[in-house]
């Protein structure tokens, strides 16, 4: 199978790397964490049988460079990046968008800001912790992570972050399944290179984001909130479950945990296809 078509897009303060596969209606996949476009390698080719599948590295990650590497990161700007990719690749027709983790936060904001551009959004475990009743506890977690990063370094900060996300009594962080596919293992070096930016810029900028729930209520028929079936009890599960209940919509469960996209690609991709056909 031939590889994707690769392009770059100049946006405000950054240059985005993006990849396109297939033909048909546009499906934009928004990565979370430090995944980048490569995090969708396990599902993108199969989805390209039905859709024009676009993936990209978010600004500051991997091959998408920032003009100012020290710039603060904001959800609205990342969502505008996604909108510019939609406008480039599907200027005349609404698109479908899937986002996971921090990418799901981007997808939620994109829906509230540019609803006319979207047929459906599937948001998998968006950690919008500000919607939760115990939001102050999670603000303290983010503050502890930033202080640990400043005083002790990256890996101790990651340990604090992982401990705050896991379920009570669990010794492994969300999605810490073993036996990653070889493609995922090969991405480890790139992931490590992006971790300082993710922890120092994305985590504080995104976990303080407050979604417009009133606006989402008016768009609930275009939004599918989703979680990993193994994520129950973990922090990233809770906001999606809270929003689904608030909006009166079904909570869709994907295989695996927070990183089910990587650990269970076949089942994940098949359920995603079904979600967009619904």
Automatic annotation (TrEMBL):
The record places domain AB hydrolase-1 at 25-132
Determine the domain of life of the protein's source: Bacteria
One Pfam family from the record: Abhydrolase_1
Q: What is this protein called?
A: Hydrolase
Q: Name one GO molecular function term.
A: hydrolase activity
Keyword vocabulary terms for this entry: Hydrolase
